[in-house]
């Protein structure tokens, strides 16, 4: 509800008496930037979310995802197996007023929130960030909005569709629900996908074709700062360890690159040695070792640890 209040306050402040948008002069927002559908994909820990933030900073250099005043034009959510069309678009919800009388309110989903802001502020660029897209059934999440993902050369939706709930929420004129909706060229949709995730929903090719695929490499990113951890009384470089482990995974275990580890798989800011024991070993056992059973005779674990007990 806090996000919706921010949107409504912004729209009220920047709308003329006739309902048209006030022109906003802001040298941090490039109105000439054409909206796109982007999908960042790669192995875990490669910095996909960081790359997304850097993309946003191309237009909003001072963007800080923890600061409401700087992120009013950025909408972000994480998809999951139970995420639905109603979560994405919105729904009518029952509630009570101060007198405990029952009433119904429109609870806008994040897509409708972002679209509402984009329509109300055509001179600002809006970002809709969908993390972990493959963890939900994205075809069902988008539903009838799928057709909006086709964009023309100007960045607008090639096709417009009828959706009374969204239209009524984003347009202010009478009989708004009868208007068709579309994605304007000042709204960019960005998704992220971990290619190694198991038990996820497959994204069909028709859906992926409507996104510009951006691969995040397993190689050390430019902003990465190496760190060290203790093993057998020695200081071990995380990056050296990671590079050698990745080579073993692909060359000896004959697995694909998406099973490797990105530089940010473990954060040095949160007790790295505990993460190595609890996060890294579990990932290597559940996602890497079990995937190699039919690929290679090589193993990451000695026989005495193959019961999955690493304590």
Automatic annotation (TrEMBL):
SUPFAM superfamilies, per database record: P-loop containing nucleoside triphosphate hydrolases (SSF52540)
MF annotations from Gene Ontology: ATP binding; ATP hydrolysis activity
Source organism (scientific name): Pseudolactococcus laudensis
Domain ATPase dynein-related AAA as annotated: residue spans: 38-211
Source organism superkingdom: Bacteria
Name the UniProt record assigns to this protein: AAA family ATPase
């Amino acid at each position: 509800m806090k996000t919706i209040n921010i949107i409504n306050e912004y729209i009220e402040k920047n709308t003329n008496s006739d309902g048209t948008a006030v022109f906003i002069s802001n040298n941090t927002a490039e109105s000439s930037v054409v909206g796109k559908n982007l999908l960042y994909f790669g192995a875990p820990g490669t910095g996909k979310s960081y790359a997304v933030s850097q993309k946003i900073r191309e237009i909003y250099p001072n963007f800080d995802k923890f600061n409401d005043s700087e992120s009013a034009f950025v909408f972000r959510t994480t998809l999951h197996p139970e995420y639905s069309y109603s979560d994405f678009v919105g729904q009518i919800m029952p509630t009570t007023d101060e007198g405990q009388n029952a009433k119904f309110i429109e609870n806008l989903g994040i897509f409708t929130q972002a679209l509402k802001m984009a329509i109300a502020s055509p001179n600002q660029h809006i970002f809709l960030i969908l993390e972990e897209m493959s963890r939900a059934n994205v075809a069902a999440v988008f539903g009838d909005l799928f057709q909006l993902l086709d964009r023309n050369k100007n960045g607008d939706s090639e096709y417009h569709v009828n959706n009374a709930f969204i239209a009524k929420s984003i347009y202010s004129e009478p009989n708004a629900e009868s208007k068709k909706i579309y994605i304007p060229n000042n709204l960019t949709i960005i998704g992220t996908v971990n290619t190694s995730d198991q038990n996820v929903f497959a994204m069909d090719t028709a859906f992926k074709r409507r996104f510009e695929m951006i691969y995040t490499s397993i190689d050390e990113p430019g902003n990465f700062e190496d760190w060290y951890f203790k093993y057998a009384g020695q200081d071990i470089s995380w990056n050296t360890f990671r590079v050698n482990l990745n080579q073993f995974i692909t060359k000896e275990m004959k697995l694909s690159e998406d099973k490797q580890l990105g530089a940010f798989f473990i954060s040095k800011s949160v007790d790295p040695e505990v993460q190595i024991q609890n996060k890294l070993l579990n990932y290597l056992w559940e996602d890497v070792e079990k995937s190699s059973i039919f690929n290679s005779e090589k193993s990451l674990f000695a026989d005495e640890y193959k019961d999955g007990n690493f304590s």
